[in-house]
Amino acid sequence: MCHLLLLMPILGLPIFLLWPLSVAAPSYIAVLLLSGWLYYYVVLAMRRPVETGSEEILHSIGKVVGLDKRFARVRVHSEVWNAESPDKLRKGDLVTIEKLDGLMLTVRRYPGGQGMQPTPSRSDASSV
Questions:
Q1: Between the chain's N and C termini, which has fewer beta carbons within 10 Å?
Q2: CB contact at 8 A, 95 and 89
């Protein structure tokens, strides 16, 4: 149904068969202007960065909140994830998410990230 909105200029052409030109032309121009406005906002929405899902969490910055023998616990966007890392991690380290495999993150220590606060993302700021 929503794709029919993209066809508005074509679906509006039959008004030239039904109404006189003095009425049909201004009506069709209104349809064209409405379509142009709609297309503009569709393109803007398509260019926005990803805000959810696995694409958004990659390359984000998180903080190590706990350590186990097998993995670390990392807080990213107000969620706690299990993570593994080739680096030696300590509680409080900032990390960058490199990979997501199921529910396990692969992380690396963020350069100069001991004791700093990660900058909140949009999802963190909206949940406050």
A1: N
A2: yes
The CATH number that applies at residue 89 is 2.40.50.140
CA gap 93, 110 in Å, rounded: 8
Residues facing 81 on adjacent strands:
74
- Do residues 43 and 60 both lie within one domain? no
Q: What is the dihedral of CA 32, 36, 39, 45, to 10 degrees?
A: -150
Same domain, 32 and 17: yes
Residues 26 and 67 in one domain: no
Whether the full predicted model's pTM is greater than 0.70, yes or no, is no
Domain of residue 18: give its range: 3-47
Instruction: Please work out, in degrees rounded to the nearest 5, the angle formed at the alpha carbon of residue 32 by the alpha carbons of 28 and 38.
Output: 140
Q: How many domains does the chain have?
A: 2
In tens, the pLDDT along 26-79 reads 999 999 999 999 999 989 998 988 777 778 889 899 999 999 988 999 999 889
